[in-house]
Amino acid sequence: LRARIGPLELARGTFNATITPDSYVADATYRTSGIGAALSNDAGRTRSQGRVVNNTMRPASFNNKESTGRQREIDMRWSGGTVRAVSNPPWGTNMGSPPATEALKLESVDPLTGLMQLSLLTGRGEGRACGGTVKIFDGKRRYDIRTRYVGPVEVSTPAYKGPAIRC
User: Fold this and answer.
1) Is 105 helix (H, G, I), strand (E, B) or coil?
2) How confident is the model at residue 124, as a pLDDT?
3) d(CA 14, CA 3)
């Protein structure tokens, strides 16, 4: 995977997922690159596991371990109507403004599950693609990624050349 904003590369990584009708497991590695590495030198690995309920991914656990910088490890668990998030070393006192409530955390997914949900939104057919919001809680902050359909486009990348949909 490569993350870009226009021609500017921000990060590179790998992604592997196993999805069944009832559950999923996803693993990823990442590192900043290009202009992203100039701003922050981050690398690590992450894993998400969860259930598939009514064709919707619901996380059960998430773990992110940084191999550079602060080498922070984030562990999150969704269970019994709560979301438990632990960071080692601990986060500072700023937990976002305003901090995420339990209700906001519960309606969210972890960043890796969010990446899969985002790909499902953008992977639908022309005219139906890109319409939706993915709500993410990363252990510290809650944020939304909103998409909207722009139209068809031809792309040429090292991995794919041909028609695509722009969101």
Assistant:
1) helix
2) 58
3) 11
pLDDT at 154 over 90: yes
Rounded Cα distance between 46 and 58, Å, is: 17
Q: pLDDT value at position 128? A: 64
d(CA 50, CA 79): 11
Residue 123 carries which DSSP code? T
At which residue do the structure tokens 């990442």 appear? 30
Count other C-beta atoms under 10 Å from residue 32's C-beta. 21
DSSP-derived secondary structure letter, 90: P
pTM of the model: 0.84
Say if CB 90 and CB 59 are below 8 A apart.
Answer: no
**Quick check: 130 and 112 in contact, CB under 8 A?**
no
Task: Output phi, psi for 21, to 5 deg.
Answer: -60, -20
Q: Show Cβ contacts of residue 123 under 8 Å, excluding neighbours closer than 6 positions.
A: 129
**Tokens coding 106:** 């519960």
